[in-house]
């Protein structure tokens, strides 16, 4: 994968890329490490203070988090070398972020803030009125693809960006393995955020959105909050990891006593998600953990089904799953790997990327540095 | 074993709280004559089907032996009422909670059954096996669920003309019913039970489960019960119908502030179902959550259906199963979702089939999921829905009619009668797949609906009076007529609230329902005596009428013949305006009728073209769908037919198989033509030389469905190379077939005997429709400019 278009050498620091989604704001920040003494001299105090604030902390306010493990060190972008930082915070805390920008006089830096995601449109006027910032808005799917392509081209060596699960249908032998994404096209890119987008990508610049579903990460968290009283994604996932969905779902074997052989349906397959919850005594016998697990399995399986159908319809054999729903969510990743392998009889390969939720923000940053491409 | 214990416990919790008294007349009708049973027990609903024989009265006519010197006075023929046995299929749907009560009831009333087994299917079949065997003493014979589903689906798609419909929320009528198509394959069946099965059906026996989804009705119920603490499925649906999903779902505009223009996603689209409920410190209403859940599931099913249809290149998708249950929100969402996913896809690569997707939802398939092997290969016969015994599509917005809604949750019924003959398309239909018999769809046209419902209710007293008068010596005629009145009035009231209860509401369906209800209470032919009397009187004038026609010039005669048919058609008890005149003034004569007729130019007038055509070569064979008894047939139609015969055209007279109003039946017409033949050598020669043929239409309706005609008629039409179709009367040529396109010449003649309808068509009472049509591409033969004969 290569990135082609020319750099804008004049792009002034700070270099940010922002992706404002329905649930999370994703922010990437390029911290230059090759600052010359001369530059250091000229660097205004505001810029220094922002750099120090972002790089010396791993948490910002109550909800902002820097994913340190994802940081890309000694990266060259537009002839500059530095570290790429990955930061996220909930979209509902955007006002606090804007307030901070105002307090730190961000607008005095006269930088362009490239932003993508729906929030770039929704909050554009808030950026202007609350922080005196002018947003440069970019299309989220363009950014997503650009981000995926770019990160894959720059990450090499030790930690592979792309990985898959070996032996996905055998839980005991299922292990994560690095994957070299060479000649990746065509590929089906499945971005699981609050909702889900399915994109058929034919080249770096050629793609189409083939489908989408509203049953995504937001649905998982939303239903879990209602069903279990939890309030965060991490909490919901933690509960799910301890639960048992077969108590909640009606399986094929619950109806047929075993496999429904005539149609090749194994007994363990889910016949009706939450199907057992029609009965009062079963509702009373399940735990919150079971419910969280069932919600996770339902959403993940549904994404798997639609993915399979889109891949078949588009005649694509490789699927790359990205998006923050997969963050620290090995359960879903393994389930998707399993589902792709099982229902396609090994034809479809499920791939995952380390920087799962940040590609849109990376794409937005590239929009700042390579405006010709946007 | 743990499995067993669990299942049993859930069974008992299901059966405990329900004790109901079943009204036997209404629900398990004719159980004492039930022969075979089939049962489908799903996760929540039981669907029971049985095959019974029905004994009912039919009116027969028999010619007197006239050599025996007028023994029965002046009467032309004798009317008798006979018992006839026909087959009927009954379908009843109820919640599993009632299963024990129902089995007890069946056991108590089952006397004549000759079967030792009950066919069973569905996931619950094994669960209730022991209960059924113990209660009924019948052996449970399990059948594969999917095979049953497909067979049942094919059966109803073939035999219930308005079984399938398209749901369009924002159109004037919510339901758009599909007509039966001779070729129903291939199609995609999306059966939504607890889960979803997606089946590709290629032929009667060839089908394949190509996919499915675990997010189905069980998910709605289970997750809905958890979220709202509401236990019952119907209650959940009711909650959903009152909710606002936008408070729970994250919409595109919640993320974008508006639409996502570059992708063509509007702001109101759901970006993330339940996306707004991802917070611990906010309460959501039950209604809103139920609505969001319903949207989520319906959309998901619609999307999967689309993807599967695209993958397998199928353009027809039918949705069935209990999750649908005629529920408007569900249907709307699925339809919306189908439209969205088919439209949103940009036109592109070679693998994309051209998709004209019809989201066709299917409302009673789940009721009729039965095992047809049970009834001696039902596809040998045609079946017709009995409107008198069917409860119709009940589920509507609960606000509209809560009582009906509650009832539909309990017992839904469908009855189908086996018809004595196989029904087929008229071979002369230009495009059978797009043929719709009815001219006006009252489900769509609220004004017309209001008028006709009022009209039929107004006429009810007269019909009851007539029914009683037709059986002066029969027991309980008054009581039965009263029951008929109640039943039909109830149907009319139901239709007022739910116009789509029995498919598209049309004047035809209103007329047919009335006939079914009359039969139900053993009034097989209330007009028999009136028809007899009118036939007698008309016959007396026949020779005189013929003589005066013969005195005319050729051109005068052609016009007189047409006027004769039209004037004859004024005599009709089916039309309110006329029955008033006939009742008050029995002397209302043929000549009087002619005077009443509108002067030319008529409301629809292609008489000049017809006359030109008559100057050309004779038609090979004319098919004439006749209307009323008496003056109409004898003084109007027969002289017209006689002229055709004289021109060298063969004539096929198609009349009703069974009685309807004062329409002449095939039995009556045979006697009438014999009598006329005795007076008229032209008719006699026609009959003798087989150039005049009488066939039955296969119908017992005052209207005419050209897609359901007796197979024999279709055969005769083909053999004789019929090149002219004549349709007479309001019921057959105006209420139905007014826009029917035929592949040969056609002539539609009627007098508008209803002032409202006349008004609507831009005419007045007794306006004339004379519509002569030549199919496009076939130049009318008179263009050859032939001289008059």
From TrEMBL, chain A:
The GO terms describing molecular function are: ATP binding; pantothenate kinase activity
Q: How does it assemble?
A: Homodimer.
- Lineage of the organism: Eukaryota, Metazoa, Chordata, Craniata, Vertebrata
> What is the source species?
Collichthys lucidus
List GO terms (cellular component aspect): cytosol; nucleus
Q: What is the protein's given name?
A: Pantothenate kinase 3
Any one biological process term the GO annotation gives: coenzyme A biosynthetic process
Which PANTHER family does the record cross-reference, listed alphabetically? PANTOTHENATE KINASE, PANTOTHENATE KINASE 2, MITOCHONDRIAL
Q: Which domain of life is it from?
A: Eukaryota
Q: Which family does it belong to?
A: Belongs to the type II pantothenate kinase family.
Task of the protein:
Catalyzes the phosphorylation of pantothenate to generate 4'-phosphopantothenate in the first and rate-determining step of coenzyme A (CoA) synthesis.
The protein's annotated catalytic reaction(s) are: (R)-pantothenate + ATP = (R)-4'-phosphopantothenate + ADP + H(+)
| Xref: Pfam families | Fumble
Principal location listed in the UniProt entry: cytoplasm
Which EC numbers does the record give?
2.7.1.33
Which pathway does the UniProt entry assign to this protein?
Cofactor biosynthesis; coenzyme A biosynthesis; CoA from (R)-pantothenate: step 1/5
UniProt subcellular location: Cytoplasm
Keywords attached to this Swiss-Prot or TrEMBL record, sorted alphabetically, are: ATP-binding, Coenzyme A biosynthesis, Cytoplasm, Kinase, Nucleotide-binding, Transferase
From TrEMBL, chain B:
Question: Which cofactors are required for activity?
Answer: Ni(2+); Mn(2+)
Annotated Damage-control phosphatase ARMT1-like metal-binding domain ranges read 456-764
A GO biological process of this protein is:
coenzyme A biosynthetic process
Name where it mostly resides.
Answer: cytoplasm
GO molecular-function terms, A-Z: ATP binding; hydrolase activity; metal ion binding; pantothenate kinase activity
Gene Ontology terms: cellular component: cytosol; nucleus
List locations, semicolon-separated.
Cytoplasm
Keywords (A to Z) from UniProt:
Acetylation, ATP-binding, Coenzyme A biosynthesis, Cytoplasm, Hydrolase, Kinase, Manganese, Metal-binding, Nickel, Nitration, Nucleotide-binding, Phosphoprotein, Transferase
Say which domain of life the source belongs to: Eukaryota
Catalytic activity, as annotated: (R)-4'-phospho-S-sulfopantetheine + H2O = (R)-S-sulfopantetheine + phosphate; (R)-4'-phosphopantetheine sulfonate + H2O = (R)-pantetheine sulfonate + phosphate; (R)-4'-phosphopantetheine + H2O = (R)-pantetheine + phosphate
InterPro entries cross-referenced by the UniProt entry: ARMT-1-like_metal-bd_sf, ARMT1-like_metal-bd, At2g17340_3_helix_bundle, ATPase_NBD, PanK_long, Type_II_PanK
Query: What job does this protein perform?
Result: Phosphatase which shows a preference for 4'-phosphopantetheine and its oxidatively damaged forms (sulfonate or S-sulfonate), providing strong indirect evidence that the phosphatase activity pre-empts damage in the coenzyme A (CoA) pathway. Hydrolyzing excess 4'-phosphopantetheine could constitute a directed overflow mechanism to prevent its oxidation to the S-sulfonate, sulfonate, or other forms. Hydrolyzing 4'-phosphopantetheine sulfonate or S-sulfonate would forestall their conversion to inactive forms of CoA and acyl carrier protein.
Q: Which PANTHER family match?
A: 4'-PHOSPHOPANTETHEINE PHOSPHATASE (PTHR12280:SF20), PANTOTHENATE KINASE (PTHR12280)
Q: Please name the NCBIfam families in this protein's record.
A: panK_eukar (TIGR00555)
Assembly description: Homodimer. Interacts with PKM.
Similarity comment: family membership? Belongs to the type II pantothenate kinase family. In the N-terminal section; belongs to the type II pantothenate kinase family.
Which protein, by its recorded name, is this? 4'-phosphopantetheine phosphatase
- Record organism: Collichthys lucidus
